[in-house]
Amino acid sequence: MGGGGGGRGVWFGVAAGCAAAACVIAVALVSRRVKSHRRWQRAAELVAEFEEGCGTPVGRLKQVVDAMVVEMHAGLASDGGSKLKMLLTYVDSLPHGSEKGIYYALDLGGTNFRVLQVQLGGKGSNILKQKVERQPIPQELMTSTCEKMFGFIASKLKQFVEEEESREGTIETRALGFTFSFPVKQSSVSSGVLMKWTKGFSIEDAFDRDIVACLQEALTKEGLNMQVAVLVNDTVGTLALGHYHDQDTVAAVIIGTGTNACYVERTDAIIKYQGLLTNYGGMVINMEWGNFWTSHLPRTPYDVELDEDSPNRTDQGFEKMISGMYLGEIARRVLFRIAVESEVFGDVGSKLSQPFALSTPLMATMHEDDSADLREVKSIFEQTLQIPDIPLKTRRLVVKVCDIVSRRAARLVAAGIVGILKKIGRDGSGPSTSGRPRGQPRRTVVAVEGGLYEGYSLFRDYVDEAIVEILGDVAQNIFLKTTVDGSGTGAALLAAAHLSNRKSYI
Ligand code: BGC
User: Fold this and answer.
1) What stretches of 327-374 show up as alpha helix (H) in DSSP?
2) Residue 207 · residue 194 · CB < 8 Å
3) What is the pLDDT of residues 255-264, one digit of tens each?
4) Which ligand 1 atom sits closest to the C-alpha of 319?
5) Which of 117, 158, 303, 488 is the most buried (most CB within 10 A)?
6) How far is the CA of 301 from the centre of ligand 1 (A)?
7) Is 369 close to ligand 1, i.e. is its CB under 6 Å away?
8) What's the rounded Cα separation, in Å, for the pair 475 and 489?
9) Ligand 1 pocket residue status of 183, Cβ below 6 Å
10) Which among 246, 240, 250 has a CA at the least distance from the CA of 434?
11) How many angstroms separate the CA atoms of 216 and 227, rounded?
């Protein structure tokens, strides 16, 4: 009996032990589930907050359109009248198709620079031949000296010219179109001083110096006989190529590493230069819209922090919400906060904490990942951010963040474009400046260039969709046309148009 009772005791003991263990496991499971639920809840909250902060309902976009128009007027009224610089380009004639000869171009302004040779055949024959060579700009040159930067590009141009001319024969008088994609205060079509650097460039001794003189000096040192015929912004080159192919092109937008727009303005609307401009037609205005600002822009704490950590604080506010230099970084900041506050990515000591660890092209790849298991997202997290095995649910959340960042940027670009159209009376809302009666919409083309629009179809769709939302039926007459290498090719065309004695004024 005694033994039996002891056995029962042991049995009860074991049973009680098992029950306790099961209880502990159950409690652990429940608490894990609760924790995981809380983690998800926090992650979802952060995404929802971000989405709300980035909201661009059509009403807000229209406010941005109107603010753009107001700032355009202010920037045209006086220098310093607005954050929009509305810079004169002195481009008052655009290529029309009868230009002839061989021209060179040098295109500097993003992560790559390009040298080009363009052969034009004259009336009816368009561009006969074009050779383009792209080179990455060594990172250290972007913060070096004028002598080093211009010496480097001059030597690459020389190499290119020698190779081309060894095959095709030497050209007597070589003319160059120079695309320099930074804010420049021009004093003529072939001279101007740098106002500030953007996009991570910072060469101190370039300020207040004539950019063309710097290049011309470097070309002379290389022993390269070449005349810089025009100095243009990349937007202006893009407009020139757009106009060359389609005369209804009135504006151009770049959405690449940086962002900007230019358009054809009536000379009499450029109040700040009244009396100083001799041509009575039109002139291309470089808006430098990357610096546009209005309180209507949907700004989140992530944008504020990105700006505070940037070398050009309080500058280029629009650009910091739109362009390729920043979109990946905004997404990274949001994902990092989610990682810290919700632990859905596991260990946060990962690369996700490093500024600019997520580039915009990678962000776009994740956004456009249409595989059922989002394997691109998984592989980018593993390889670039060193975060392995993120579950499908988390991958979906990553795609959502990329979508919010990209959609806001694209819709703001759309609002900017409509702002320009409104200013020049092509949005169907007011009297037309061309003297046409209202109600007769005019075909209007905007040339667009840059990786974000060219190579990122979801971004492009968002831009197009928002233009329709803002403009309604009028959008049927608005065409956004992509150009490739327009910034450089257009500079060569402008050099040709400028040197031609058959100018067609705008
Ligand atoms: C520059 C503009 C340029 C744009 C696109 C901006 O950062 O200020 O001059 O057109 O980038 O390259």
Assistant:
1) 327-342, 360-367
2) yes
3) 999 999 999 9
4) 7
5) 488
6) 25
7) no
8) 28
9) yes
10) 250
11) 8
